[in-house]
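WARN no homologs supplied; continuing
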Amino acid sequence: MLPKDNLFSRLQHLDQAGSTERQAARRKRQQQSSGEILQTFLAYKLDHAAEKMALGIAIGDPLSLLHEPTNQWDPNAVKVFWQEQWIGYLPKDMAALVAAEVPEAAIGLDAVVTGLTTTSRRDAFRLQISIPIPKASRRLRALGVTSAFAWDFDRTSGADKLRLVVNCTETAFRELQELLAASYDVSKCGYSYYPSQDGRHYPWYLSLTDSTGKAPEDQTKVEQLIRSLFGVPSESSRVRERQDRLKELEDKQEDINKRLDTSRAEERRLRREYDFNKAAWELRTEKAQAQGEQAIELAENVEGELQQELDLKDQELQLALAENNSLEDQLEQITTELDALKLQVEFLEQVGPGGSINDQGYTPWRGTDDEANSDELNARLISSLRGLAGSERLKPRQCLELVSDQLCPGNLLVLDSAWSAAEQARGFEHSGQLFQLLWTLATEFRKQKLAGAPDLVAGRVFGVNSYAPRESSTIERNAQAKRERTFSYNGKTTEMWQHLKIGAKDSENRTIRIHFCWDSDLGQVVIGHCGRHLFNPNH
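OK structure emitted
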């Protein structure tokens, strides 16, 4: 075994001459990985240090780390190899960290020798190791294995010195050292091999003393000085700030909880009030619904009774209308028979006892003069034609053709709309009355108009119930009714309000309307419509 004095000399020589090699090893370490770097060491007693030194280990030499899970003493043990020769184990705490958080250790993890030094008491030899980690896990970053700047006051500080532990790059550490050296005496600095407080890993340390050789009394000034350059508080300050912030958040949470309790109490009160009101509203709703159902049932009963009564009244009305129509038919038949009887009486009066009989076996009727004989003959002829039209059930178009074309040509101007309406009213039953009105319109009414009589005076030739000079104001104000009663002929448009009427029902078989006007220029009665009852807004 080499003497201790020789060993110390060699170690001192290595420490003084190894700066160049150390810088080269650091450059190699930086080139190997852009991730994080974990700093640790191998410790040997001086009795074994000579044996390791004899191997020729130098700063910058590559190392290989391998997890040994089958180790009987520690399943987290990590072996260290130099040139495939086992030279020791990582410290227990560091080995547990590497085995758990660095999966590459299971197959072989590269490392590098970054320093050879002794302890401050010269009782042990240490081999400094840097382990590049490609990607640090969350736990490694939480423990300080990161290149970000972090520092704290070490727990080993005392009255004689203030010890700082730092996690940063070597360049930043040198800048920090120069900054503090301007105000304090940096008695010691370098790698920190001992586990630091709170489980964090700080690879660098600094020991500060003031001008009296003791630890600075005001640590706040030291922290302000470091923060002025790096802007990073100590971890102790961060912890205190977190605790203060946590206390503030707890106070706010407590206040929020109190307000929440108050809000919940108010919510429960409102909920009870709502439930009470809801029950009352539901009860009132049920009552209102029941009353509504009763009202609906009552209304339905009343509606049913009214509908029954209305049906009865409607039946009575239909019976009355039917009876009225029957009476009108009877009246018309009696009137026709009366006219025929009058003609027969006149005929018998004309014949008398001394009347002569012609070759056909009857005595011809003779008036007082030729004009009277002609009028009487016309009356008898028209009566006969009316009876013929009624008995033969002529269609309205046939009645129009008979009067306008055969009996009174040139007296009437029948428009196409009138012919079309008459064709559609082919089922009209009272053709005798229609013939009589058309004949009167073409003869007596025209004669009155040629004499200059107004419509109301000329219309008396039709009797009381068959002629109307105008429509009601309701009909004349209605747009559709006005449109249906407006007709065009010879380049002009005329509203034909005056009309002749037969029947008062909507039935086309018993009701017909003849709308016409007098054209003084033509000397003709213009018929625009002869057919169904036109639109009436009251129906």
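The radius of gyration is 67 Å.
OK
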